Amino acid sequence: MDIRRYEQTDFAACREIFLSNVPRFFMPEELDEFAQDLNRLTDPYFVAVKAGQVVGSGGYFRGAKGVGLSWGMVRRDLHGQGIGKALVQYRLELITEDCPDLAVHIDTSQHTRPFYEKMGFIVERVEENGYGPGLHKVLMKRSPALP
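Now predict its structure.
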């Protein structure tokens, strides 16, 4: 598997990856926001490519509270194969190089909370139904000192 910078030609594949994760991981109404973000990218965003196909994506951005991970996802039928972990580790390595003293934040759901806890993130707050009915927003943070 390779990880490389997102290109506009990856748009359709990333959209399909998003849709494969609806409704368990994303609400359908988030698709427009995701598409708009891809069309006006100014922050680093990457795709994971396996056997010539885009199978995952994710980025990061600098914000008021530090650095945030954005729109991380893996094609639903490929969950559990280490693609998501590789994408997160890749982004965390780049963040450590670019912003070694900043904490890393993520807004995720209750479904991916355990995954991010294994990656060293701790829960700061949970907003019940924060993304929509039955999909809670979990705000998490990772210390900048973690390897």
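The chain has one domain: 2-142.
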